[in-house]
Structure formats: C-alpha cells, structure tokens
Design goal:
about 210 residues, alpha+beta, seven-stranded antiparallel sheet
Length: about 210
C-alpha cells in the first residue's frame, strides 16, 4: 500500500452533536454514542492534556433587544412634566453550552483568557449599568425608558486532546459561540410617551 493511501485511511473527521472527532476509518462503525458539547467541554483541564480555544475572526458587534428599564412615569397634571427615571439594568451572556461563563469550569476560564489575549479586552459575563434618565411627559400621558445593550459575539473552536480515549477518541474539536455585553461601548437609551389608557388613569390618577 503506498504512502498516500495509508495517510488517507489514517484519519477522517466525523461530525456529531456539534463536535468533530479525529478517528481511524475502521472505528466509524462503532460510534453509536457520542458526547454532547457540554460533556466534552466539562473535560477541559479536567481530563485533557491539551485544551485550547481558537477564535475564528474578530468579535461581531450588535445591539441587544430593546426593553424597558425603570418605572413608568404617569402625568396626571394639566402641565408638561419632566420626570427623572432612575434605573439599573444587568446584561448577561449566552453561549452554546447554556452555562454562565462566571462558573469556574476549565473551558470558561480558558475562554476569558484567550479573548483578552486575542483582542486586548476582557470578556464580560455580566455588566450592570445604572443611570437617571429624564423623560418629558405631556398631560394624561405615560412615559418610559428603553435600553439596548451593546453586545459582542465570539465564535471559535475548542481543540481538546485526551491522554486516554474519551468516547473512543483522543482528539476532539468542539465549535463554540458566546454572546455577551460589551462594557466599553455605550448602550442606547430611548424615551417614549403615549396616551394613558382608561385603566391606567383610574389606577394612577385616582
């Protein structure tokens, strides 16, 4: 058998449950059961002799969903009112594993260190912003504030090498995506007003 044919038979990639294992061709038929992404990543620095996160490209910036912060301001007077709405809002992260990046798992610590080294800024698992925002409310109207947090999304792959076989393989590549608050970027705050409903007038204006 020539060398090229030997190399082509030596290693192939199988994709299951979001992860790719490097496995001998003859072993594919035995791969009836595969680990979940969470099961694999829980082994990072806890059963691996190598666990490295490789980011794919630059973080992608976006804005989070607009949502109300603070209380609504009801103007039951006959004059234009400027109300100051105090609020505090916390934005967390989401990821393909569904655990908080604050947790002290090996893969979460590795992720944070890698992001800081690659992009020169820290990964924020949670960011709280608090402020007092003015809103001008006309007579018989209600005013409120919405906020959209600045977000960043990072994609990449964990390369995991096991000293002993894990689910039949020693090398796994695990795709991973995380989206979290971008603390060094300003959020968007918007003031809104509308006419009070009959029920709101009864509840707030007596």
């Amino acid at each position: 058998m020539n060398r090229r044919k030997k190399l082509s038979m030596l290693v192939v990639a199988i994709t299951t449950a979001g992860a790719t294992a490097m496995t001998p061709l003859a072993a594919q038929a035995d791969d009836a059961e595969q680990p979940t992404t969470r099961e694999l990543l829980d082994q990072c620095d806890n059963g691996t002799d190598k666990c490295v996160f490789h980011p794919s490209g630059q973080p992608v910036d976006s804005m989070g969903d607009a949502h109300q912060v603070g209380d609504s301001a009801f103007n039951c007077t006959k004059d234009l009112q400027r109300s100051t709405v105090g609020w505090s809002d916390t934005t967390g992260e989401t990821n393909t594993v569904g655990v908080s990046m604050k947790a002290q798992y090996g893969f979460t610590k590795l992720f944070s260190v890698t992001i800081e080294a690659s992009y020169s800024h820290a990964w924020e698992s949670s960011h709280t912003e608090q402020q007092q925002t003015n809103v001008e409310v006309k007579p018989n109207e209600v005013g409120w504030i919405t906020r959209e947090a600045a977000m960043q999304e990072v994609n990449g792959t964990y390369e995991m090498h096991f000293e002993d076989e894990f689910y039949g393989h020693r090398i796994w590549y695990v795709p991973f995506t995380a989206k979290g608050p971008k603390a060094d970027a300003p959020s968007t705050k918007t003031q809104h007003t509308r006419k009070m409903t009959k029920k709101e007038k009864q509840e707030h204006c007596g």
